[in-house]
Amino acid sequence: HGKMSWAGIFSFNSSSISIINSKFKNNGCSIFFHAVSNFEIKNSHFAFYESGVVAELSKNGIVRECTFENGEFGLEFYLCRNIAIKHCNIHDNECVGAMAQGIIGFTIYKCNVYNNGDDCGGGIGVSQGIFVRINSNNIFNNSYYGIYADFSIVNAMHNYYGSFLGPSRNMTHPLRGDIVYGFASIIITFPWKVFPVFTKAEYCLQRVKK
Asked: How many domains in the chain?
């Protein structure tokens, strides 16, 4: 809390880490993992950060029932395997809500991802991703894109994109919901949800702020 500090939690070459019922505020990087396996971050609140969670060369991790708000980058994963984000609120981040690069096995499920990217990005970004599943989320009102992917195959079905007409594919004249586009990628968005998805994330947001 208070004046921004660089680090909240650092962990290197570790396993079986659990971070539960925590609050992180005014950190440069709230949590940083390098070569960590089997980690869980649950029911925690992150605000006013440069990066909420950063993991590299890590595997078998889950982030659930957390809130990431009013930072720059919500969650970042580099060269990781088997990472899941579930029942989280990811909103009002200046750059990107959640991003992964060089990842094998990446799941985002029943999250609210909105109002991200006012400065330089959007909701969810994936680069060089394999076995990527972004399903049953509310992805809306993100600035430049709801989902962007390059050199990836992404299953992005059953999401609500802010419109019953589904996502937009045209960056110049978006006619429907959040923009979904990529480079050298396959992004499957149909079928999408025509109404918002019910998630536990709304209740998690209320709980962690008490």
From this structure: 1
CA atoms of 2 and 191, how far apart (whole Å): 45
Mean pLDDT of 129-157: 98
Task: Classify residue 82: in a domain, yes or no.
Answer: yes
- For residue 162, pLDDT over 70 is answered with yes
CA distance from start to end of the chain: 16
The two three-digit tokens of residue 76, written as one number:
């970042």
Q: How far is residue 129 from each of residues 11, 103, 153, measured CA to CA in Å?
A: 24, 5, 7
In a domain, 89, yes or no: yes
Measure Cα distances from 203 to 48, 74, 85, 138, 139 in Å: 21, 19, 16, 15, 18
Q: pTM for the complete prediction?
A: 0.94
Residue 186, domain CATH: 2.160.20.10
pLDDT at 209 over 60: no
